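Support request, please re-run this one:
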Amino acid sequence: MTAWAQDSAYNFGARALLSMSGEGNTLNTTGFSVVEPISGSSITSTTNTEVIVGFLGAAGSDSTPPTLSVIGNLEILENQPIFTVVGDLNTSNFESESIQYSLVEGEGSSDNSLFSISTSGRVLALDTFDFEVDGPQFSIRVRASGTGDEQAERSFTISLIDMNEDQDGDGILDDEDPDDDNDGFTDDHETATGSDPRNNNSTPLSHGLVAW
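Re-run finished. Output below.
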């Protein structure tokens, strides 16, 4: 067990390794060794030294729990091939030198099946995404595990980045093209009549328009 300790005059502070025994609200200190002085102070003897409230967990750890975070951003351009790198995750406050990453079920795991994660924390795409169909974002849930019970878990959002395309190959980028699918009907007209402005097999004529 690790706890903060100080002398009876409250002059010294240190993080100490303790051997504890007892039941209920009674604990007896049976061993004491200083592992980390505070503010340059040190305790060289356990005489008149008492333990104060504030246990920190397993020996050698600090009070901050293990955390899981992203390096930079998790994002991918649309129309990229399978196994495109989405981003990398890392951890902090783990005592374990070897960390294993995995996708897990839980809140925010709705899109886990569309991605994979390596044991080193690299997220990869398992599909080719179309912003207009799949965008604008996905959600995955990741667990990082160290030795024993040491772990951190949370969900992450992956952004799908829209690219300015020329879907119909007419030399006009879609952002500037009034008829993205080149079917002879403007995008605005198709949207108003319920047809798909990005599918030349879907026109206002197939959605109830009887004359043009």
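The chain has three domains: 2-51, 67-161, 164-212. The domain at 67-161 is CATH 2.60.40.60 (Immunoglobulin-like).
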